[in-house]
Amino acid sequence: VAPADETRTLSLRIEPYGSDRYLLIGRDVTALHRLQGVRQDFVANVSHELRTPLTVLAGYVETLLDTDEGQDPQMHRILSNMHQQADRMRRIVEDLLLLSRLETSQPDADWFETIDVARLLEPILNDARLVSGEEGHDIRADLDPTLTLWGVPRELQSAFSNLVFNAVKYTPAGGRVEVRWGRDEQGRAVFSVCDSGIGIEARHIPRLTERFYRIDVGRSRARGGTGLGLAIVKHVALRHGARLEIDSTPGEGSCFRVIFPGP
Ligand code: ADP
Predict the structure, then answer these.
(1) Probe ligand 1: pick from 170, 201, 204, max atoms within 8 Å of CB?
(2) Rounded CA gap, 45 and 25, in Å?
(3) Does the keyword Transmembrane apply (predicted)?
(4) What's the chain's average pLDDT?
């Protein structure tokens, strides 16, 4: 029994008890809750502290690349590699910061607005075509321009672009990527990305939204992944009352759907 002035966190569960009664079971999870808070603060602080030194380092490397010494082929290769790695670290840090903001803070009411999703997706699709480049993916979009969404634009932009870029990343050259925004048969607003890519074995699917969970770490890194994309998608979906559904067949392709509530 805690002193009256101490806040405790309880986890409550209701279980059937006999045929006509229920049992309410309470567990004190205060210590676990505190630990989770400490972990979240630590990640947020580390990411924040790494941001400035990384920017400075990348800046110096860029300066060196522009000097006469930087034009020497061997030096140029080393500096370009350093620049790429600094950029990768910067993306991981930015994703970690975004994720910790999504986990720890509720969105302000005034971040929400009516979003023209078809318009929000335009630059994402253009960037995806640029990234695909010579790999020549067939990137198609079927977007309902009349269907708007009440949400936080920068969060949805981040979630939708993660799904579109993943489809390009995990689909071999020339493959198909189909992006849809519209209503399903039940009248719910759905954003979906389906690809004809490498697919995912069923046993991995439940764990894909964990931070840094990757099926093939080498492939993810080589393609510029941070391992945080789907964790971001899941949290953004949750904040919008939506859920993420994943269907996939190894060797054939995958479909990721963000299903928003209600008609
Ligand atoms: P990453 O930065 O590694 O892409 P994500 O969190 O976005 O991290 O995705 C986690 C893992 O899920 C990826 O490493 C990859 O193994 C798998 N994955 C995500 N999207 C797809 C897809 N469209 N097709 C096949 N595998 C995918």
Answers:
(1) 170
(2) 36
(3) yes
(4) 94
